[in-house]
Amino acid sequence: MHPLYEQMETSVFERMSLAAAKHGAVNLGQGFPDFGWPDEILKAAANAVVVGSNQYAPSRGLPALRAAVAEHYGRHHGLDLAADHVCVTSGATEALAAAILATVEPGDEVILLTPAYDAYAPLIRRAGGIAREVALQPPDWRIERAALEAAVTQKTRALVFNNPHNPTGRLFDAEELSAIAEIAVAHDLVVIADEVWEHVLLDGKSFVPIASLPGMEQRTLKCGSAGKIFSLTGWKIGWVVSSPEMASLAARAHQFLTFASAPNLQAAVAFGMAEGDAWLQPMRDRFASARNRMMEGLEAVGYAVLPSASTYFLCVDLAASGIELDDEAFAKLAVEQAGVAAVPLSPFADQDKPRHMIRLCFAKRDDTIDAGVAALAKARELAR
């Protein structure tokens, strides 16, 4: 048995969702919305099952979807892309896996900014690489150039850069983006850019892809997600976007991971990418309203809530909320005794773990948010 998997714990998202089901709790843990998807895209997928192909799609993705992804980023970010820059994958986590396997050789070091999505480090280790963590510090979660520079060694091959950032909800600013780009160029690093939250922008914010910065186009593997753009996380349609040469390397890794994704879902996403710009702002407005409702509710019952400019997530500082329990103990109490599931932040790092923070998903209907806040009010009283 492979020791990496033999010793690996169940994902914190799966663990808390199972606990929510077991205890009949409100699930504010796992990050999926219960509203927001465009019905037109669902109809396009249903129609494609009936009138389209139900056999293997081309491994790199339906030509229509690859072209639609390239055109979408041309419209939104001014990137000069074509279909040969795109490889369609079974979700963004598979895109990350393909990008990492195509980049990392045994002994290579890869920098992670923690807290980080918990798939990064295991994928790096499975490729034979070594994850080097640079801890972002609350409450601001800023990228400090000196700390990033200090993590680079002669063995550093790549940097995984998640923007907007899960779990903190940070949208990194121009100074921070410049630090990433300038260090990558100076040290000839590949940047594996997890940019799945690029359209889930709140408060009128705008997104700048790291590939658009000077010197970054040829060294960036961008990972994107239709599930996040259209609130259809279960569809698991993602992509890698890069130079034709790097995209082809990722495609070679992808062909031995999932080979291809469901053609009807690809066709529906192609429709959504080509026709869906008008759906983006209503989606953002609804998520902003949900965030505000949860934040105001939590603050009213005594929680210290950190800002969130993007993603579906809010972070709560337990210590600043007058709670002495660590994140794991509080999450256990909340789901078992108060009836609400939250995600502790400590599993998002291997070193310098943030043990006084929890993450909550606000992409929920009003009644779910209200029930969750009421349960968290109970949890706070039980924990004090």
From TrEMBL:
Keywords: Aminotransferase, Pyridoxal phosphate, Transferase. It is an enzyme of class 2 (transferase). Residues 26-375 form the Aminotransferase class I/classII large domain. Its EC number is 2.6.1.1. Transmembrane segments: none annotated. CDD domains: AAT_like. One of its GO terms (molecular function) is pyridoxal phosphate binding. Its cofactor is pyridoxal 5'-phosphate. It comes from the Bacteria. The keyword Transferase applies. GO terms for cellular component: cytoplasm. It catalyses: L-aspartate + 2-oxoglutarate = oxaloacetate + L-glutamate. Belongs to the class-I pyridoxal-phosphate-dependent aminotransferase family. Homodimer. This is aspartate transaminase. It comes from Sphingomonas edaphi.
